[in-house]
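FAQ: What does the model actually see?

It sees only this:
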Amino acid sequence: MFNSSKIEELSNKIKEMKSSSPLADMDKNIHALIKGVLTKMELVTREEFDVQAEVLRNTREQLAALEAKLELLEQKLNQQ
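And it is asked to produce this:
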């Protein structure tokens, strides 16, 4: 029913029309706008977030251990 070359020709004409129309520029402008907004939001990747969450978890554990040691030392100091 449809000739492959006719479909190819139609596809090429549509591509030409799109590239010569303001839509091509609008697509680039929208991409730049979204990229700029995301950059201003200072978003991080999931991997970076997970790394920082692990660092925070380790720091909290160390803080808890140090607080426990400090409490023991204060008790020993008060007993003297």
